[in-house]
Amino acid sequence: MSNLSQEKIMEIRQSADIVEIISEYIPLTQKGRNYFGVCPFHQDHSPSMSVSKEKQLFKCFSCGIAGNVFKFVSEFENINYYEAVSKVASKIGIVVDVGKSTNTQEKNNLEYETMNLANLYFKNNLNTNFGTAAKEYLINRGLTEETINEFDVGLSLEKNDLFTFLKKKKIKENLLVSLGLINQNGLEYQDVFKNRIIFPIHDATGHVVGFIGRVYKDNMGPKYLNSKATQIFRKGNILFNYHRAKEEVRLKKYIIIVEGNMDAIRLYSSGIKNVVALQGTSLTPEQIKLIQKLRASVILMLDNDNAGENATLLNGNLLEQAGIKVEVVRLSGEKDPDEYIVKNGVEAMEDNLNHPISFLEFKLQTFKKNKNLNDSIELADYVKNVLNSLEGKDAITIDITLNKLAKDYNLSYDILKQELTKEYEKEKEILPVASLEKVPKKRKTRYEISAENILYYMMNDNKYIQIYKTSLGFFPESLYRSVANEILYYYERNRKIYLADFLDYAETSPLKEEIYNIMKGIKNEELEETSMRDYIYIVKENRFLTQMKELKKEQKETNDILKKEEIGQKIVELMKKIQEMKIERSV
After folding, report:
1. Domain check: are 392 and 453 in the same one?
2. Are residues 502 and 561 in the same domain?
3. Is 82 exposed, middle or buried (0-12, 13-18, 19+ CB in 10 A)?
4. Are 88 and 12 in contact (CB under 8 A)?
């Protein structure tokens, strides 16, 4: 449980000025009553995020994200809600003890605690007599005691010691199996990472969620053994060392991506701390989102072989498609950054990082590879690849590249420009066909829009809660009814409602996502009583029309004449109610 009471959280939020806090992260410009800035949560090119000093709320009118100061800091810093509360408190000089979070994201506490226990156990093993050989191996690889400790490097022993240790901690076998720490064979249980050096894998917030086991003796099976996918670990959601690197990335404004965890460890321990490692060959959408949150450019420094070259092409394209600036470092002589630093030193590595090439230049170099550009067919193929790579580039980059092609290979600039235009036209012709394959986004009905606006109004002002209670009373749909009841519960407990405060309460509600989704869908944030009553009219009309539809169906299906007449009378009464509402609305 968190040590922070709702009252303390409210005090912190009311003491913090959302404009001042957000201004520390992005530039804001005042326009009228509100402040505007470029939204950091999507690829925004013009200021679409509004920040209200009066309401102490922010909202992006493009991607829809909205909330109070804690929500902004949580999303921007990629930390949980209570960590955001603590960070805001420290910014305004309030000392708090957050304790353990009650955030719904922390529902896997037992899993995290178990993985942390395993990590501490592995780490302890390395510092015993049983870990002497493994420690010598790491020292011989150039890892210092400081680095070994900082990265929590450990050792799994030959026997089933981990299973025995965790069983003594009263942790059940099925949890150990589900976390990938133990294998079950019938009634027998075996440690998964036997006889391996262990490197823990952390998620973005620093929880240990998995392990990498590396052999350090001969004839010990596969070189690396990684944790399987579990409830708290998905390789595609994690970048190795991200939780350590993110602050340094924000300072330096760029992130280095390498292939192996040892590459990341070597760079980090050498003072180059803005580095993360892939958890596979290709970046996933989730990993790219982690990078986007840092609002930094990327240097790809993958292994110096054909696989690394192909991975650079693949990942560079994915990053550019996400709107991220990409540069490339290709090391010469050694296979990977780990070996390069060992043989050439940190200064040589820093020199490489200070002189990256653009991703476009890397692609041009790659397109030339193994081609005879004196051959007209191969030259034409190369030129087509270059033209394709210019899609989405700015006019200056395009002009420079076309001029260089024309000069280097004695080609006509005008023909290159014409060919480039033809390629773009082809893309435009293909797009409508491709778009047919996409599932169209479901548009909200008048009823859904009205219901969500009613709930939004209720979150903002006591007056609209009273109008809801006297003029509507309930929603027939369970989702809207549940959210309305949550709002009413908060109001009854506090005798007032203010959206910025209600959102703090919502953090512990099982309806948290639904509440934020409602906020996302609101297009007009101005509150007007006439609009509220219009929304209520639409909801009530929909309720009566739905009832009429059900009655007509029932009337059609029955053969009982008296029953038909009774149902018909109910339909007439509903029609009268609708008519009365229309008259009342027009007055």
Report:
1. no
2. yes
3. buried
4. yes
In a domain, 315, yes or no: yes
Count of domains forming the chain: 5
Instruction: Give 499-502's long-range contacts (Cβ < 8 A, gap of 24+).
Output: 499/55, 499/57, 499/68, 499/459, 499/460, 500/13, 500/18, 500/55, 500/56, 500/57, 500/68, 500/69, 501/10, 501/13, 501/14, 502/459
Query: Tens digit of pLDDT per residue, the chain (587 long)?
Result: 456 788 889 899 999 999 999 998 888 999 998 999 988 887 667 788 999 999 999 999 888 899 999 999 988 887 888 889 999 999 998 877 655 544 434 567 899 999 999 999 999 999 999 999 999 999 999 999 999 999 999 999 988 889 999 999 999 999 999 999 999 888 888 999 999 999 999 998 889 999 999 999 876 678 889 999 998 999 999 999 999 999 899 889 899 999 999 999 999 999 999 999 998 888 998 999 899 888 889 999 999 998 999 999 999 999 988 889 999 999 988 889 999 999 999 999 999 999 999 998 898 888 887 778 788 888 888 888 888 878 777 788 888 888 888 888 888 888 888 887 775 555 544 444 333 344 455 688 999 999 999 999 999 999 999 999 999 988 988 899 999 999 999 999 888 998 999 998 898 888 988 999 898 888 777 788 999 999 999 999 998 898 899 999 988 888 888 888 888 898 899 898 888 888 777 76
DSSP state of 78: T
Buried b (16+ CB within 10 A) or exposed e, 529-562: eeebeebbbbbbbbbbeeebeebeeebeeeeeee
Find the domain containing 418 and state its range. Answer: 372-436
222 in the same domain as 254: no
Q: Are 312 and 300 in contact (CB under 8 A)?
A: yes
At 581, list the tokens. Answer: 């509402």
Cβ pair 163, 191 in contact under 8 A = yes
423 vs 28: CA distance, rounded Å: 40
* HSE value, Cβ hemisphere, 13 Å, CA-based, for 212: 21
On whether both 97 and 183 belong to a single domain, the answer is no
CATH (domain of 355)? 3.40.1360.10
Per-position b or e across 443-471, b if 16+ CB within 10 A of its CB: eeeebbbbbbbbbbbbbbbeebbebbeee
d(CA 211, CA 200): 4
Residue with tokens 């900082």: 150
What SS3 state is found at 367? helix
**Does any domain span residue 1?**
no
Please give the model's pTM, rounded to 2 decimal places.
0.64
* Mode of pairing for the β-strands spanning 196-202 and 188-191: unpaired
End-to-end CA distance of the chain: 53
User: Across-strand partners of 349?
Assistant: none
Q: List, as one string, the DSSP characters of 22-36.
A: HHTTS--EEETTEEE
Rounded-to-integer distance, Cα 536 and Cα 527, Å: 14
Instruction: Output the CA torsion sign for 550, 553, 555, 560.
Output: negative
Shared domain check, 576 and 458: yes
Task: Tell which of 104, 127, 159 closes a domain.
Answer: 104
